[in-house]
Amino acid sequence: MSPLFWLAGVIALALFVYLFIALLKPEKF
Questions:
Q1: Under a CB-based contact definition with an 8 Å cutoff, are residues 29 and 22 in contact?
Q2: Which residues have a Cβ under 8 Å from the Cβ of 28 and sit 6 or more positions away?
């Protein structure tokens, strides 16, 4: 597995978690 592919997966996961938290706590924004 290439490092670039692994990095892309980590970034995608981080974005997913960020959006999930944003939907759970809209009052924070």
A1: yes
A2: 22
Q: Which two tokens stand for residue 24?
A: 């759970």
Q: How is residue 15 written in tokens? A: 């974005």
Structure tokens at 23: 């939907």
Residues 1-29 have pLDDT tens digits of 699 999 999 999 999 999 999 899 877 65
Alpha helices in 1-29 (DSSP H): 3-24
For the chain, which residues make up each domain, given as ranges?
1-28
Cα separation of 16 and 19, whole Å? 5
